[in-house]
Structure formats: C-alpha cells, structure tokens
C-alpha cells in the first residue's frame, strides 16, 4: 500500500479576457493527466523545465491548489474529498519545503515562532514543550538553537532553508514535498542542504516528492524519477534506468542538454546532442 | 501570435531572486539589512524628514503642555487687555475678548489635532478593513467591492462632510470625525488591498496554509503585520488632510461651537478683523500650516525610507 | 599582444560601514578568438569584473586601481564619451535576465538598429536589412516578420538570442556574457551555448563567459579562471583545470556537484564545503579560503596571503596547498 497515490491529476487554469467583465476564453493545462505513486521512505523525483507543471503538481498533491480533476490518495484517504477540518488534520502528515529562502519565512516573525507555528496551529503541547521541540528541530537541521529570537533577515540563504526544513519537520510528517529546495543556493551550500535532506530521510523515514529542474540534483536524491513536459509525465521509472537508458525523446533531449563538468566529455555530448536536435524546440 | 506563458523558457525563480538581490555582490556574510533598520537609517539621513519630525513633535508638545502650564484662563473675558500684541506675558497676544492667544491656540490645537488623529484612525480602520477583506477574499467579492469603491470615488469629499454634519444636526468632536472620515478612506482601502494581494503571493503565506493555519491567523499574523510600513506612511498622509478639512469646515462656520475652538474656528473669528488685527487669523493659520508641512515631510521621508528600491548613495 | 589585458584590478564599493572589496587584485588576459570562462559562486566578484571592464559600475563603486587594456588602449582612462564608442562597437555585453534586458515598449527591430545607427554609418534601411540578417543568424524563425514585434511576443530563449544579435550587430571583437543562460531552461541553454560557439567561430570573436556553473564553463570555455572572495584562485586551460584541479576550493566545488553520469550517485554523499565566504568589508589578511579549507594548517595559510604562482606551464594557482604538492596521507 503506497503512502501516496496520484491518479489522473488535472489542473486547468482559466485564461480570461475582457476589461469590465472577464470571460474565460481558454484553459492552460498546467497538469494534464498525471499519475504516480510514492512508497514510504521513498523519493520520487519530479523533473522538468519551466512551465512543465511540476511545481503545480506538488501544490495539487498537498491541496494547496485545488485539482480540477483526479484523485490524490494519501495514507489511504482521498484528499480531494475531505472536509476542511479533516484535511487540516491530514496536513500534519504532509509538508512542504519551498524554493525561495527569502520569501518562505515571514520577516516579522522570529525563527523560534516560525518553527513553532505548526505546533501552535494544531494546539500541540505547552509553550515550554514547544520551545524544547523547536530547539530539538533546529539542532537536527544544523541550525544554532540559540538563535530562536532572531529574525530571518539576519541569516543567509542556506540557513534560512534550514529553518524552513525545521518548520516542515515540526509535525512529524510522513511526506515532504521539496519544491526546488536548493535552486536558490550556491553550489557549496546546495551540497550541505542535499546531504541534510538525505540524512533526515534516512533517520526519520521520510518520503519525498522532490521537484526540481536540475537533473543532476534530482539524480542524487531520487529513487524513482518522473519526467514532465507541458503538464504530462513523459517518462517514469527507476532513477538509474531513466538516466542511463531513457526511452522518451524529450527525456533524451533533456539529458543531452545538461552540461557536465568535463570538457572532453562535453565534446562528445555536444555531438550526441546535435543528433537529437530535432527534439529541441527553439 | 502571443507567446504561451508556459513557454517562456525562463525560470521565474531566478528572475525573482536576481531582482531582490542587492545591487552589488558583497558576499553572503554581509547581512541583508533588515527593512526596519535600513529604513530607520535612511529616514535619519533624510534631513528634511528628521527636522520635520522634530518640529512635529514640538507642535504636539506645545498643544499638550502649554495649557497645563499656562496661568491664564482661556475663557476669561477682560476687555482691558484686549488686542494686545505678542509680549512677555501673552506670547501670542490677546484676542478681542482679552483672552490669551497662546493658550487658546494650544487648546484649539488639541481639538484640531485630536480630530485629526481620531479621523485618521477611523480612516485607517475602515480603509484597512475594507481593503483587507477585499484583497484577502478575492474573487467576485473583491470585484464587487472594488467596483463599489470606484463608484464612491466620485463623491466629493467636502460637500459630503457638510451633508453629514447637516444630518447630524449638531457639530461636536465626534460628528466632525465621522463627517470627515466618511468620504476619505477610499485611497487607503485601495492601497491596503494592493498590499494584501501582493503579500498573498509570498511563500510564507503558502507555508502557513500548508501547516493548516486558519484564515484569521493568516490575515492577522502573516499579512497585516507586513503592511505596517505602508500603514504608517498613510497615517502621516491622512492626518493633515483631516485637519485641513476640519479647518475648512470651521472656517465656513460649520465648526465646533464656542467656547471650544479649533484652529479653524479661531481663524474664522479672526477673519472678521484681519485688516486691523491680522494676528488673530495668522496665528491659527500658521499653526495649521506647521502641522501640514511637517506631517507631509515626515510622510515623504517615511515613504522613501521604506522603499527598498530607493538608491541612496550608500 | 592579447586582445584584453586586465592587471591588478581592484573595484571597491562604498558602503556606510566602509569599502567592500568586491574585486581585490585580479589579472587575466583574453587572446583573440578564445573564450575565457570566469567561474565562481555568488559574491565572488565575477559580475563586478565584467561591469568594471565595461565601465558600467553603479555610482557607489569605483575602480580603485588596476589597468584594463583593450588592444593596448587603457580603458580606465577614457572619458565617458570615448567609452561609449568602445561599448557596443568593440566590446559588447549580454546580461543574465532576458526578461528585463529588452525595453518592452520598443520593437525588436528598433532595438537592434539603434545600436548600429549609434556606432556605424548606415542608413535606416541598411540597418534593418542587417537586423534581419542578424536575427536569421541567431536562428529566429520568420525573422523579417518578427522584426517589428515587441519583446513580449518572444520567449525567454528567443529574447536571449535577440540580445546576442544586438551584441553582434557592430561586429565586436569581444563579447562579455554575464550568466547568459542561468535563467534559461536547460534545453534552451544548450541552444544558446551552441549558438555562441557557432558565432564565435564565424566572427573570430573573443568571449568572456561568466557563470557559476562548472558544466557551462566545461562546455564553453577554452581557458578558465576560478574566482573566490574577489580574487582569482586558479587559472588554467579548461582541460587542464578539470584534469588537475589544484586549489582546494576548485576541488571542493567539483566534489560538491551532484553527478549526472556515473554510478552510485543516489547512495553517495556530496562533499559539502562548511562555512561561508568571507566578509569582503574586511577581507582576511591571510588566505581567504583557509577557514573552510580542509588542508589549512596553522602555517602560512592563516598568516600570509598566498600569491598566485605558476604550478605548471599555463596553470596558475593561489594556495599554499595545491593538490600536486600535497603529501599523500597514509591511512
């Protein structure tokens, strides 16, 4: 029994025209018939370029956006059909880490309050026990727990991501959607955060839906991979398989386009890439 | 053929990040200065703003303290000392009834500024409520509320105030406040709505929803506190408007009844004698100007200070 | 004589707390027809270097010392007007964000011809003809019709191509590309890098490509300079740098990259570099990488700043512990 089962997920955004009275003239199919599963403790990498619908998929899974159609079954409950209160309960089990360390933390809340908020919202524990848990969480993510009274702006991007991760862990979720968690960070900090995410997964048994555009990063984190293009999943399978033996043209073009830090290998890749040129749109 | 926004091929995250970075690479070790500390520094470097703030405070202190320490009775009639020019006993001189102008101007200030603050507060409350609800709920309600606001915009502010006073029948502190507020909150509402709408896009709001926070927590804990900067600027912008509005109405004769006086009614009293005793109108007028100028400069300074994009030479 | 020679460039930013040493003494040269890649993380000073060369610094920044010689001419000493003649005509620059580099209220055609009419003595018709040629050269389909479109009708990748077309319009000898593909999708990036290579060969243009992406420099650069905390810490030809990285930072950077190819990627750990880059307000007096370096000892690293030296022909490095000089650690 999978932790998460997504079937035929669809998300349409209306395109509106008109000045005084807006009419809907068309729809953008941001997510188009997407299905996948994630088991406990597993990482599914969701990779694609801008506009592929990967982030939208993540939001739909968490019901932060209401799917237009389709089913999201999490811990054996159909999320799309839950009442508001029941959904709120389920939120304890599924959390999200955002991409932008600068806008994902409320600038007017202290670090301690930010990490404690999930517990406060669900009435968990006393102020003292929450404080203790906040310290524990910050330590787990490698952030100095003495800084709970400071504000986010006093910290660097990497540290802020750690705060965001601590917040996501506060309620002991089973699944975390990582929405481009390292895209905004420098390479050397990226490695720190990716290692942290790996360690947390191993220690806490977390499942990840890892959304990213960076193929190398996704490879380092994922057990299985789904490649998205224009709202659809074009290929899905075990990570090794997809990377070494891609079946779909788009996947092949995507893999061929990624530069690798090896000049000789790059020359070979450029040759291979030109052969695939027909799959790349201008 | 328009480009499908999905095919922009550009990572909006990178674009957004680059826009928010400082204009020079200075290493991550230099902390991104906080909005408030940076704003404070910008404000204190703005000489006009600081001087205005000082004068504003001086004015406030004057209207609060002067009547307390003054030995004179503002209502005591004594024709012997009428129409005195400013002297050591009566700093502003006396009026046609021999009343000390220094204390009367201060008391008038209490009423004018009091109405100003009360009116501004009322404008802020109504404006913030209307704008926040509209921006927060969005959708058809936002649409409806904004169209309604558009219609209201057409209302002329002062005639409406006059009509309101006429309906009340009596002019006292509170009716004046209501009259001045009734047609002045529109811009505040609009701006607050804009703020809420743009703040809603921040990831920390999404994060709050992901945690399961209910709407009131999101509105009061996450959205409104982040509009504080804008709200403060508006307070200093609306205050002079309200004071001026009250002065104008009083000057027209619709002001607060004697013996209580506001600056406007003082000016109206002095209006009849301005040729022979100009001070009676000049002094309250100067007081009004003082308030308006200082408040506007402070508002201007605050607005510049809080604008993260203003490029002051560091 | 190299096309561009930069010697001991120092660019400082004036802030309320003092001077930030964004670029603190770098030297490099670009030969005709070759591409130099300047690679480093944010805050290392690579973009500021480019802006210094172009004379496009914000007022708060100044070139403290150093020389920038283009074809033997000292750019630093030119007046603003003379510099404007060089900019666009001899040295062109393309920027990172294609969404804001083009003026949304002016047609693409006008933006291209504008540059030509500024620098070259051409009529408007000739300029327009050339503009169509340029758009075709950068592979914009239906160039003639699209000439009079506004930027919003172009996707990000196409806009970047237009930027390249504008940059090439006056046949510059040197093209500076500041993170030209960072904001673009990876397939589009590949297209742009291919295009740059194609154009460089055809026009015998030199290029400086600035990026944080080691893969991009591996693909596009002939020579590479690695920057850290305002200094060049390693400089070599591309193959030499990747074959024999000498500086601990270069090694660490390569180790921190998740690999696209190869095995055991999922299970392995990435080599994280602890700590953060130093404060450039008061740059450390000794080696700037020492606090984060696993080879730093209590020796010279923390006492004096290492100098840039040639460890192999054509391979410069600024460290007290280059890889080839390290004594193997016996387990």
Verbal overview:
The complex is a heterotrimer of chains A (282), B (314) and C (331). Chain A has 282 residues and is of the alpha/beta class. Chain A is 38% helix and 26% strand. In chain A, the strands form 2 sheets. Chain A has a 6-stranded mixed beta sheet, sandwiched between helices. The longest helix of chain B has 37 residues, at 101-137. Chain C has 331 residues and is an alpha/beta fold. Helices cover 30% and strands 23% of the residues of chain C. Chain C contains 10 helices and 12 strands. In chain C, strands 6-7-8-3-9-10-12-11 form an 8-stranded mixed beta sheet, with helices on both faces. A 4-stranded antiparallel beta sheet of chain C has the order 2-1-4-5. In chain C, strand 1 and strand 2 (18-30) form a beta hairpin. In chain C, helix 3 packs across helix 4, helix 4 crosses helix 6 (156-168) and helix 6 (156-168) runs parallel beside helix 7 (186-203). In chain C, 50% of the residues are buried. At the A-C interface, helix 6, helix 7, helix 8, helix 9 and helix 10 of A face helix 7, helix 8, helix 9 and helix 10 of C.
Helix content class of chain A: 25-40%
Class derived from helix and strand content of chain A: alpha/beta
Give the radius of gyration of chain B: 25 Å
Distance between the termini of chain A: 43 Å
Task: Summarize the helices and strands and which ones pair or pack.
The complex is a heterotrimer of chains A (282), B (314) and C (331).
Chain A: E1 4-17, E2 23-38, E3 43-48, H1 54-61, E4 69-74, E5 77-78, H2 84-90, E6 94-97, H3 111-121, H4 127-140, H5 157-169, E7 175-179, H6 187-204, E8 207-212, H7 215-221, E9 224-229, E10 232-238, H8 239-244, H9 249-257, H10 263-275
Parallel strand pairs in A: 3-8, 3-9, 6-7, 7-8
Antiparallel strand pairs in A: 1-2, 1-4, 4-5, 9-10
Chain B: H1 12-20, H2 35-45, H3 47-69, H4 101-137, H5 139-153, H6 157-168, H7 173-181, H8 186-200, H9 203-211, H10 215-223, H11 228-254, H12 263-271, H13 279-306
Helix pairs in contact in B: 2-13, 3-4, 3-13, 4-5, 4-7, 4-8, 4-11, 4-12, 4-13, 6-7, 9-10, 11-12, 11-13, 12-13
Chain C: E1 4-15, E2 18-30, E3 35-39, H1 46-54, E4 61-70, E5 73-74, H2 80-86, E6 91-94, H3 108-119, H4 124-137, H5 143-146, H6 156-168, E7 174-178, H7 186-203, E8 206-211, H8 214-220, E9 223-228, E10 231-237, H9 238-243, H10 248-256, E11 309-312, E12 315-317
Parallel strand pairs in C: 3-8, 3-9, 6-7, 7-8
Antiparallel strand pairs in C: 1-2, 1-4, 4-5, 9-10, 10-12, 11-12
Helix pairs in contact in C: 3-4, 4-6, 6-7
């Amino acid at each position: 029994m999978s932790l998460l089962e997504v079937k035929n997920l669809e998300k349409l955004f209306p395109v509106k025209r008109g000045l005084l009275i807006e009419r809907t003239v068309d729809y953008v199919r941001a997510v188009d018939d997407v299905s996948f599963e994630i088991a406990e403790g597993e990482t599914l990498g969701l990779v694609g370029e801008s506009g592929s619908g990967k982030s939208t998929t993540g939001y739909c899974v968490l019901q932060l956006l209401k799917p237009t159609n389709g089913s999201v079954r999490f811990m054996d409950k159909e999320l799309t059909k839950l009442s508001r209160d029941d959904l709120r309960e389920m939120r304890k089990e599924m959390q999200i880490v955002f991409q932008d360390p600068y806008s994902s933390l409320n600038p007017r809340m202290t670090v301690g309050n930010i990490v404690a908020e999930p517990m406060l919202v669900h009435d968990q524990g006393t102020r003292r026990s929450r404080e203790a848990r906040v310290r524990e969480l910050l330590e787990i993510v490698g952030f100095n727990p003495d800084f709970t009274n400071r504000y986010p702006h006093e910290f660097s991007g990497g540290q802020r991501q750690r705060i965001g991760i601590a917040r996501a862990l506060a309620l002991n979720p089973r699944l975390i959607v990582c929405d481009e968690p390292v895209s905004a960070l420098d390479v050397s900090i990226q490695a720190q955060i990716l290692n942290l995410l790996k360690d947390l997964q191993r220690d806490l048994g977390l499942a990840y839906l890892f959304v990213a555009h960076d193929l190398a990063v996704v490879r380092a984190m994922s057990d299985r991979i789904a490649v998205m293009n224009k709202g659809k999943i074009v290929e899905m399978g075990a990570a090794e398989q997809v990377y070494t033996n891609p079946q779909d043209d788009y996947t092949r073009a995507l893999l061929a386009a990624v530069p690798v830090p090896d000049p000789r290998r790059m020359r070979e890749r450029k040759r291979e890439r030109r052969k695939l040129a027909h799959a790349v749109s201008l | 053929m328009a480009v499908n926004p999905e095919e922009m091929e550009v990572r909006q995250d990178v674009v957004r990040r680059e826009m928010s970075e400082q204009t020079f690479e200075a290493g991550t070790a230099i902390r991104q200065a906080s909005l408030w500390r940076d704003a404070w520094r910008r404000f204190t470097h703005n000489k006009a703003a600081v001087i205005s703030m000082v004068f504003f405070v001086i004015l406030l202190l004057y209207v609060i303290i002067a009547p307390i320490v003054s030995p004179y009775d503002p209502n005591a009639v004594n024709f012997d000392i009428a129409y005195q020019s400013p002297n050591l006993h009566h700093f502003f001189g006396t009026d046609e009834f021999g009343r000390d102008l220094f204390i009367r101007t201060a008391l008038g200030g209490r009423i004018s500024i009091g109405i100003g603050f009360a009116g501004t507060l009322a404008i802020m409350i109504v404006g913030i409520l209307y704008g926040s609800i509209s921006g927060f709920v969005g959708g058809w309600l936002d649409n409806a509320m904004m169209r309604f606001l558009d219609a209201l915009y057409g209302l002329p502010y002062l005639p409406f105030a006059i009509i309101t006073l006429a309906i009340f029948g009596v002019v006292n502190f509170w009716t004046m406040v209501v009259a001045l507020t009734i047609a002045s909150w529109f811009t505040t509402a609009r701006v607050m709505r804009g703020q809420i709408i743009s703040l809603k896009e921040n990831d920390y709001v999404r994060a709050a929803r992901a945690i399961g926070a209910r709407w009131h927590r999101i509105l009061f804990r996450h959205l409104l506190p982040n509009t504080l900067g804008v709200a403060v600027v508006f307070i200093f912008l609306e205050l002079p408007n309200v004071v001026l509005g009250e002065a104008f109405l009083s000057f027209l004769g619709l002001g607060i009844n004697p013996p209580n006086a506001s600056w406007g009614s003082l000016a109206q009293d002095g209006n009849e004698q301005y040729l022979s005793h100009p001070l009676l109108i000049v002094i309250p007028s100067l007081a009004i100007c003082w308030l308006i100028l200082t408040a506007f400069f402070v508002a201007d300074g605050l607005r510049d200070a809080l604008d993260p994009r203003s490029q002051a030479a560091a | 004589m190299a096309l561009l020679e930069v010697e001991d460039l120092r660019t400082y930013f004036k802030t309320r707390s003092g001077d930030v040493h964004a670029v603190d003494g770098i030297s490099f040269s670009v030969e005709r027809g070759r591409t130099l890649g300047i690679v480093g993380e944010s805050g290392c000073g690579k973009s500021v270097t480019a802006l210094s060369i172009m004379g496009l610094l914000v007022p708060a920044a100044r070139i403290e010392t150093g020389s920038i010689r283009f074809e033997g001419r000292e750019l630093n000493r030119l007046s603003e007007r003379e510099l404007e003649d060089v900019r666009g005509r001899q040295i062109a620059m393309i920027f990172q964000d294609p969404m804001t580099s083009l003026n949304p209220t002016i047609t693409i055609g006008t933006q291209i011809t504008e540059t030509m009419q500024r620098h070259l003595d051409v009529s408007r018709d000739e300029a327009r003809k050339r503009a169509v040629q340029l758009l075709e050269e950068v592979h914009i389909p239906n160039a003639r019709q699209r000439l009079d479109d506004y930027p919003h009708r172009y996707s990000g990748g196409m806009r970047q191509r237009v930027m390249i077309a504008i940059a090439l319009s006056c046949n510059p000898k040197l093209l500076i590309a500041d993170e030209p593909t960072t904001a673009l999708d990876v397939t589009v990036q590949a297209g742009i890098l291919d295009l740059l290579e194609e154009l460089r060969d055809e026009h015998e243009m030199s290029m400086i490509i600035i990026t944080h992406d080691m893969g991009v420099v591996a693909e596009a650069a002939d020579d590479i300079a690695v920057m850290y905390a305002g200094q060049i810490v390693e400089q070599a030809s591309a193959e030499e740098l990747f074959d024999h990285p000498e500086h601990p930072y270069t090694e660490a950077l390569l180790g921190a990259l998740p690999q696209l190819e190869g095995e055991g990627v999922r299970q392995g750990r990435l080599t994280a570099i602890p700590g953060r880059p130093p404060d450039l307000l008061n740059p450390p007096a000794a080696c700037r990488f020492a606090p984060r370096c696993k080879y730093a000892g209590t020796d010279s690293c923390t006492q004096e700043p290492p100098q840039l030296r040639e460890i192999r022909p054509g391979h410069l490095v600024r460290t007290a512990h280059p890889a080839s000089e390290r004594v193997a650690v016996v387990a």
